[in-house]
Design goal:
It is a single chain. With 328 residues, the chain is an alpha/beta fold. The protein has a single domain, classed as D-Maltodextrin-Binding Protein, domain 2 (3-Layer(aba) Sandwich), CATH 3.40.190.170. The protein contains 13 helices and 11 strands. The longest helix has 35 residues, at 253-287. The relative contact order is 0.17. Residues 1-22 form the signal peptide.
């Protein structure tokens, strides 16, 4: 691991892990970290997982969800699961490229055309191989490829109808070199910035622009500080449900099967909820005053081809090709 948990998050996680591991007998409460709240697409999926887990185990296995990054930011949670101090969690793949190069696939622009394309690829042998790499590189067990959804641009300058409209716009990216290259290729001035600083930066005009799934744009109230919502659909963002590998391996084979089955039952429920919420939030964001633009994506795809070519050797040229050209 390249980075470590802050002491405050570490102490809280250890306290949770210690209290949970002390549970007597075969009953077990599994603490689950979520970046968003209970009504989000993440919350719906995790709560369904907990419901099925309790049903299948006849009440022996239950979950305790911890919302809104209460156990730490996503990278801290992934590390915490690997270290065995956080039980389970749902997180975007954004931080995972720092551990396993292949996960930078999900930072690359315009890899997936639509939800069916993404689901087919993730539910194939390619998703299984990525899950295996996560076990090796992060010491976590993937239970289900849940999702955040497609990411879109918002800004406070102008509608984005074509890549040239991004010229001169100061755009915040996640702390990802791939994302910086993507937005520079599209013409924006790209600056990596920690998530906790984004709203204030937009509010104060330090940054003009950001990108996220619609659920996050709504949940974080970006409509208060951004005028334009542009359906750029530039990146598909999975949010896998994971468990610490050591913890998963500590369960009996019967309980391991129950955990996997509960997650797989919850998977289509979560994905369906995610798509429904996307449509709901799109309408609500427009009602809240955002100007919504649906640009032709072909010029955007063309503009970022050099980014795919540059990063394919790092991510794995065969993996990138398999994802882009996967038949669904």
């Amino acid at each position: 691991m390249k980075h470590f948990l802050p002491l405050t998050s570490l102490a809280a996680a250890i306290a949770l892990a210690t209290s949970t591991h002390a549970a007597a007998g075969t009953e077990r409460v599994i603490n689950v970290s979520l970046p968003l709240g209970p009504d989000s697409q993440q919350g719906i999926g995790v709560l369904k997982f907990g419901e099925e887990l309790e049903r299948l185990s006849e009440g022996r296995l239950t979950i305790e969800p911890h919302y809104d990054n209460a156990l730490g930011a996503e990278r801290e949670v992934v590390e915490g699961m690997g270290f065995g101090i956080i039980d389970a969690g749902i997180a975007s793949t954004g931080p995972m490229g720092g551990f396993v190069d292949e996960f930078m696939l999900f930072d690359l622009p315009y890899v997936f055309e639509n939800h069916k394309h993404a689901y087919a690829f993730l539910d194939s042998e390619h998703g299984e191989e990525l899950a295996r790499l996560a076990e090796e590189g992060m010491n976590v067990k993937f239970l289900a490829w849940m999702e955040n959804g497609f990411r879109h641009n918002t800004n406070s300058v102008r509608p984005i109808e074509k890549p040239s409209n991004l010229e001169g716009i100061n755009h915040r990216t996640q702390e990802s070199r791939v994302q910086v290259d993507t937005w520079e290729a599209l013409g924006a001035n790209a600056t990596p910035m920690a998530w906790t600083e984004v709203y204030t930066a937009l509010q104060q005009g330090v940054m003009d622009s950001q990108e996220n799934p619609l659920a996050t744009i709504y949940d974080v109230n970006f409509y208060e500080v951004q005028d334009y919502l542009n359906i750029t659909q530039h990146v598909y963002s999975p949010a896998p449900l994971m468990m610490g590998l050591d913890l998963f391996n500590s369960f009996s084979e019967e309980d391991q099967a129950i955990i996997i089955e509960a997650a797989q039952i919850a998977l289509p429920v979560q994905r369906e909820a995610s798509q429904e919420l996307e449509q709901r939030y799109l309408g609500q964001l427009e009602e809240l005053g955002m100007t919504v633009t649906h640009p032709d994506l072909a010029p955007f795809r063309e503009a970022v081809k050099p980014v795919l070519e540059e990063w394919a050797p790092t991510v794995g040229a065969e993996l990138v090709d398999a994802a882009v050209n996967y038949k669904y």
